[in-house]
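Q: What residues go here?
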């Protein structure tokens, strides 16, 4: 288990790719549970979010995972889908938990605005990380993966805004 976390941290640091994740349904299940846990924790600590918001966030998250899986399949690398999705889920979970920790622990030490900025930058780091994962999965240059990750980010935001217009207009 420790080796999995070390690998995910190396992927977050853009030093390894999804090929470093074992091809295993058990690893996939572990990172899926970790991703779901991180999402629930993040939503519970945000008083403005409701259960409906959690369902919408999970649904849009699964849509992005399907988008990435589609890219890997269309690029002709179907056997890499499980590792790619496992890497995206695991890194996403760690970034979400880091976001929660930074937002809750730094706010009393720093100003709320600065803590929020740091937390936002942590979440935005998911774009180059996911781009790196996709690029390595499909054997393409980093910018191809980056474009895919930006597209996924916009897709997720648009889907979330369509399903929950109140929260989209408040941001």
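A:
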């Amino acid at each position: 288990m420790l080796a999995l976390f070390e690998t995910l941290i190396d992927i977050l640091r853009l030093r390894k790719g999804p090929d470093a994740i074992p091809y295993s349904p058990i690893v996939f299940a572990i990172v899926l549970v970790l991703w779901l846990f991180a999402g629930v924790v993040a939503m519970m600590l945000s008083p403005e979010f409701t259960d409906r918001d959690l369902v919408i966030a999970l649904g849009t998250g699964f849509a992005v995972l399907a988008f990435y899986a589609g890219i890997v399949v269309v690029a002709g690398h179907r056997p890499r889908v499980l590792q790619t999705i496992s890497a995206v889920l695991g890194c996403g979970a760690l970034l979400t938990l880091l976001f929660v920790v930074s937002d809750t622990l730094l706010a009393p030490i720093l100003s709320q605005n600065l803590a929020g900025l740091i937390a936002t930058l942590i979440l935005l780091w998911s774009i180059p990380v996911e781009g790196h994962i996709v690029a390595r999965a499909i054997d393409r240059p980093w910018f191809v993966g980056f474009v895919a990750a930006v597209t996924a980010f916009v897709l997720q935001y648009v889907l979330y805004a369509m399903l929950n217009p109140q929260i989209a207009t408040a941001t």
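A: Context that may help when evaluating the design: The mean pLDDT is 91. Residues 81-109 form the longest helix (29 residues).
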